[in-house]
Design brief:
The protein is an alpha/beta fold and about 270 residues long. The chain has 12 helices and 10 strands. A 10-stranded mixed beta sheet has the order 3-2-1-4-5-10-9-6-7-8, with helices on both faces. Helix 6 packs antiparallel against helix 12.
Length: about 270
């Protein structure tokens, strides 16, 4: 049985992502694990709250996540568990992934803010650190199935077999139609998409409903947003490129940008080293 982790802080966007993930789990007979990182307010820390206060907060958080887990079991008739942690978010999420042998993470995304744009948040940081697919769900989206996938594919970045395996798994699981969408500055480079070895070798594409679409543009993000508007897919899939320190001074991750701008769920596939 596949296991998906849903990160929740019980906010509106996290609650929406929880129900999205539970609906997905019900449809595909997955197990769901609720992950919550308990945090203490800065006011309590400044006031040097007692050990009894922190213990009471832990019991309160534990009760809340247990009740939510039981609610999901009853409402969706799925197998559900919970994982309560404290400390560094990324480290504890990785511990949760290992403890529950997770296959995918679901996270909610709040409406974009200036702070998110400048500093990022746990979602955008997870995209570049967590070595599992991450499904990012906007706060207004309900699960209605995944029948059409838009895969924004960058021929300029090397694809790995593990990344392609994850993409093909989602296509086959949902029997979805996929559009491979490429934006390039030079028309002569478009032939690379059709003949790309990593995309076409080793898979029986006759069983997959797919098509290629390529446009010439220097504004990649705007082109992807326009294609989402035109094709109305259920899911946008991207593979984030890992910039080195020097590159990161001049480039921003397109996947991270789409995570906070996107109006549909975004599946970020990690570019793991094969």
């Amino acid at each position: 049985m596949k296991t998906i982790i849903v990160c929740t802080d019980f906010s509106r966007e996290a609650e929406n992502a929880t129900h999205y993930g539970a609906s997905l789990a019900k449809e595909n007979n997955y197990k769901i694990v609720l992950f919550n990182l308990q945090t203490i307010s800065i006011h309590a820390l400044n006031a040097q709250a007692s050990a009894d206060f922190f213990y009471a907060q832990t019991l309160k958080n534990q009760k809340k996540i247990i009740e939510k887990t039981e609610e999901l079991k009853e409402l969706y008739n799925i197998e559900a568990d919970h994982h309560l942690a404290s400390g560094n978010f990324m480290e504890e999420l990785e511990n949760c992934i290992e403890a529950h042998d997770c296959d995918c993470i679901v996270m909610g995304m709040a409406e974009k803010t200036l702070e998110q744009k400048l500093l990022g948040n746990n979602v955008t940081r997870a995209i570049h650190r967590i070595k599992k697919p991450i499904l990012i769900v906007p706060s207004h989206i309900e699960y209605t199935g995944i029948r059409k996938i838009l895969f924004a594919y960058d021929t300029q970045k090397n694809m790995t077999w593990s990344a392609m395996n994850d993409i093909y798994y989602f296509i086959n699981t949902f029997n979805a139609e996929i559009e491979v969408f490429n934006v390039n500055e030079n028309l002569e480079d478009f032939t690379e998409v059709i003949h790309d070895i990593d995309l076409n070798s080793g898979y029986d594409l006759e069983d997959i409903k797919y098509r290629f679409k390529m446009i010439q543009s220097v504004e990649v993000i705007k082109a992807i947003e326009e294609e989402v508007r035109l094709t109305n897919p259920d899911l946008l899939t991207m593979v984030p490129y890992q910039y080195n320190l020097l590159e990161s001074l001049f480039h921003r991750s397109k996947t991270a940008i789409m995570a906070y701008k996107n109006k549909i769920p975004l599946l970020s596939i990690p570019l793991n080293i094969d």
